[in-house]
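Section 5: illustrative case.
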């Protein structure tokens, strides 16, 4: 075959192969977009690469987690909106701290155990001796929101009577695994990419080797075995470099408070992660509006002139230096001052346009959007109920309650129940408390929730109790109290009132109050009967002799008292 024909054939084959590849690519692209979900398709309005499906730990790698924590902590330092939302959520979740209530069959044992636990919670729970148990609960919830997680090392220290008691040492999230949380594995020297980090290592498929993710060493099933705790450097400006400085804490001695949002997630995600950009934009918007209002408040009048430089040079006033280095004179305007304008000059008042009339509504809408992710309605974010009704306020509180109940249950499971078992179990082992079979039975009473209409809430609770739809304990727990404590206190109050002969009429169910009310009603009825009898008595006829007796009238039949339920109670019978 001639060379020219061979070349032509080769070119045609090459073009055919190229076209085949193009057609194949088009078919592949059509297959990728063959579904009927618009959100899965890419177009010119949704450019950029499609998101990758990765594990939660891959999305929340050490570098990303460190950036999210640092930005969240910056918001807490500088953003009043973020600080307010975090504080509201912590206040509604644990308040000053959930309190212990033992529910065993022995009331005496319950009182003694609660008193001993309260002593530990107040004086001995914190290893540094700075926080109470309630403050540690607030710290745990706050750290979950801002940093994603928090750890507590369980240590021992001398308590009352030189007895070893449980002590909790709080460990910040950035100390678990160190900076970046990545690099070589434990014992392999300094970490890459910033130092101070305990590296990640992946187990081989089909083996029982441990895996380390962001300072957490886990078995093949993902259960934590150890936690790497890195100390701060001497200046406190960073963490100690090198994974050799990490101290590995056994998971049995470490309380890890983290609420993952995905099944494959090891470390906690900062709750403020989705609000970093929006909160920053709100802060800048507020700052710019305030600055514009300040500038507007500082300018009173504007003089328009054909020769502004000559006019300004003729002004008698103080001289100031502006940013470009030039000097300008400032004329101060006083009340009642007369200004004579030259030819072509005009004086107009400066009308500041900031803040605009839509500033408040726009800012409230942004805060409402930000509060939605935090399960906080606008009324609680701003503590402003002026633009909401009582129904809206009750609905807002109900929304918050349903959200924080899950957080409370999680904190009780991973931290509070564990503290109870460790503390009370140690007291039983030391002989300070008697061993009983059901010693682990207890509950944690949350703080009282605010009420917009207490009278309606009390009436609704009474109706539900009467119809066996709830219990007194459940109603009291919503007010931060427990039934046993309330009944014991009421019994003491009633006993004291009886001893001192003090029974206020307002006390519900008071026999003395009811008797006093009935006595007053009986006296009023007796007075009315006497008056009626006097009116019915026959009066002497003026024309009748004084010695004559009036004609007797037939006796009327006896009638029953208008209050038959009072008969026998007050000792009075109808006449």
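Designed sequence:
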């Amino acid at each position: 075959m001639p060379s020219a024909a061979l070349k032509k054939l080769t070119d045609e084959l090459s073009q055919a192969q190229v076209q085949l590849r193009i057609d194949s690519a088009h078919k592949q692209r059509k297959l990728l977009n063959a579904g009927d979900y618009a959100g899965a398709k890419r177009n010119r309005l949704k450019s950029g690469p499609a998101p990758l499906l990765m594990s939660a730990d891959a999305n929340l790698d050490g570098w990303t987690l460190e950036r999210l924590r640092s930005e969240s902590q910056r918001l807490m330092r500088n953003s009043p909106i973020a600080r307010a939302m975090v504080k509201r959520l912590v206040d509604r979740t644990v308040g000053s701290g959930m309190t212990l209530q033992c529910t065993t069959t022995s009331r005496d044992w319950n009182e003694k155990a609660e008193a001993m636990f309260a002593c530990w919670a107040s004086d001995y729970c914190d290893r540094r001796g700075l926080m109470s148990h309630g403050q540690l609960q607030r710290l745990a919830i706050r750290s979950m929101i801002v940093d994603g997680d928090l750890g507590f090392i369980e240590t021992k220290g001398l308590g009352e009577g030189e007895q070893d008691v449980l002590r909790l040492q709080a460990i910040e999230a950035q100390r678990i695994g160190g900076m970046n949380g990545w690099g070589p594995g434990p014992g392999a020297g300094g970490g890459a990419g910033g130092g101070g980090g305990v590296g990640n290592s992946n187990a081989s498929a089909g083996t029982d080797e441990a895996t380390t993710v962001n300072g957490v060493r886990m078995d093949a099933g993902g259960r934590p075995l150890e936690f790497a705790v890195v100390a701060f450097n001497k200046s406190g400006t960073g963490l100690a470099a090198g994974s050799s400085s990490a101290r590995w804490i056994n998971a049995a001695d470490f309380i890890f408070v983290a609420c993952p949002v995905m099944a494959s997630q090891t470390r906690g995600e900062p709750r403020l992660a989705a609000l970093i950009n929006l909160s920053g934009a709100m802060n800048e918007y507020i700052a710019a509006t305030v600055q514009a209002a300040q500038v507007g408040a500082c300018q009173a009048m504007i003089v328009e002139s054909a020769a502004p430089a000559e006019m300004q040079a003729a002004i008698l006033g103080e001289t100031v230096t502006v940013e470009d280095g030039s000097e300008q004179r400032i004329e101060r305007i006083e009340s009642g001052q007369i200004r004579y304008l030259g030819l072509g000059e005009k004086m107009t008042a400066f009308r500041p346009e900031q803040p605009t009339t839509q500033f408040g509504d726009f800012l409230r809408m942004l805060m409402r959007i930000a509060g939605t992710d935090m399960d906080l309605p606008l009324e609680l974010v701003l503590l402003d109920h002026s633009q909401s009704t009582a129904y809206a306020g009750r609905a807002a509180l109900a929304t918050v309650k349903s959200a924080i109940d899950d957080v409370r249950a999680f904190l009780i499971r991973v931290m509070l129940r564990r503290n109870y078992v460790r503390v009370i179990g140690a007291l039983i082992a030391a002989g300070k408390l008697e061993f009983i079979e059901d010693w682990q039975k207890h509950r944690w009473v949350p703080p009282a929730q605010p009420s917009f209409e207490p009278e309606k809430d009390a009436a609704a609770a009474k109706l539900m109790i009467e119809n066996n739809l709830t219990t007194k304990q459940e109603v009291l727990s919503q007010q931060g109290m427990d039934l046993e404590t309330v009944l014991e206190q009421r019994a003491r109050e009633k006993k004291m009132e009886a001893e001192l002969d003090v029974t206020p009429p307002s006390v519900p169910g008071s026999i003395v109050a009811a008797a006093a009310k009935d006595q007053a009603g009986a006296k009023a009825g007796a007075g009315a009967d006497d008056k009626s009898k006097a009116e019915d008595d026959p009066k002497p006829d003026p024309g009748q002799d004084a010695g004559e007796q009036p004609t007797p009238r037939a006796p009327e039949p006896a009638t029953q008292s208008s209050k038959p339920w009072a008969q026998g109670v007050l000792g009075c019978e109808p006449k």
